[in-house]
Predict the structure.
Amino acid sequence: MATTITTAAQLQNMKNDLTEDYELGDNINCSGIANFEPVGGWDGQAAFTGTFDGKGYTISNFTINRGSDSYIGLFGETDGATIQDVTLEVDITADSDTGGLAGWADDTDITDCSVSGTVTANDLAGVLVGLYYGSARTPTMSGCSSAGTLTSLVTGGCGGLIGWVGGTSAGAYAPNITECYSTAAVNDTGGAGATNLAGFIGYAHSCTIRRCYCSGDVSAAVNVAGFIALAGWGGGTPAVNIYNCYCLGNVVSTGPFTGSGFVNDIHANSTVENCYCIGTVSAHALATAGFVNANNGTVNDCFWDRQASGVTTSDAGTGKTTAQMKTQGTYTNWNFTTIWHIYSKINNGYPVLFSVPVAADGGEAWSGAVESPTVTTDAATSVAKTTVTLNGTLDTDGGEACSVRFQYGTTSSYGTNTSWQSGFGTGDTFSQAITGLTASTTYHFRAQATNSAGTVNDSDATFTTLAPTTPVVATNDATGVVQGLATLNGTLTDGGGVACNCGFEYGLTTAYGTTTATQSRTIGQTFSREIAQLMPNTVYHFRALATNSTATGYGDDKTFTTTQMPGYPVGVETDARPEVYKAYALSRWEL
């Protein structure tokens, strides 16, 4: 049965039995211990070989200040141990082989452990573990994380999670690191010349890393990178294999040396596959790389954001625009079913891992379950007599791209749907221009959004089209003019926003005197009316007219002249025998 630890003193006394199995029974505040003595490995001790189960509890105010010593952490050195399910809040200063949880962890399985705080050391340091090693078996680290700050004072080989990781010189027993992440910032002291610093692991000799990420910024003088500074061993067979990982942090090389967005150097036999990075990279002009500075291994289907990074070159990987980096189709041969997901609500729209918590968004792993979207109906704009623009906002997409549209009509039952518009994500706005409306009319409308989880509607909104204006009408030339007949023609140029009743006025003067029956017309349509009982050889005035609910508009005055009655002497006054012309015209019309 495991020994239960509930006090800081009991925690310190674990150094007296390095083979025991321990478990925490409560949260422990170590503020009463000014300078904790590491359990195992330090000051001539043997390595800790037992088990430690934190049971989900937290060890806080954990302080070690041993600037000239190595093998520093809660556990100075472990060998074949098992450590799990504990959270530490630390402030540690040491020389090397330093980490909040363990300074040197050999053949040790570490699961679901988290360290936050500050770790300061010369080299081989990580916020979680300083050196993680496989000498006689393949150790596994999974579900672990780190946060805070790691500072390398002199030499380097430091990372936000682990400083150094590897197996034997031949590459045997290389550790497996799965579903871990670090948000820790990593830096040197500014001009100290520390080398091989990175946001996740400083120096990876040999290991396999799957589904991990880091997001802290990294700054150092020499050979600095976002994820791993050095991957592989130049002179032998050990390999570093990195699959489905990403890096968000910015990278700054303060000296005239290399800086890379993901890995600085990839040695032979190593593989990096399905990975990406997006942070800015600032280094010597000739030694800056978007993804990797020097690649002697294999890099497959890896990408960097060339806009966000400010770097357009790399020895491997493919640079993409920010928009492309947020598009699933960019990531050829990636598994977006069980490993990756692009979810616009987290990680600023860049891909995330299903199984790893995203610390910046509440520390929860993305479950992959698509939710129904939410949508807002925004105010209508550009409201005119017969046209309007409807507007909406997709507040949340529920986890996948959505299609959006509007419903509108003269009642809250709507009746008309616009076409679906596809490919919208959280925060996107959308609009639709509507035509063919009726002036002086109140319309109802609402926005809709749909994804695989369902379709949602926002609340009802209204707008009222503008009142009609005075119609504009054109008087066209008369046609079919004979002794007693003529056809009058016109065009409704602008109905003022509604259909109009269109007709003509005509007569012997511009006072007209006779109005034809009207015809209903809309903008752009022509209209005609044949008139009869006209007098031969007579000049008639006419004009088109159009009437809507607001006013009547008139066209320009035009004239036509009826033809001479056959057999009547040319030059005789046309009003000398008007009853003759009228009778003739009437007889022609009645025919």
User: Anything to note?
Assistant: Residues 183-368 form one domain.
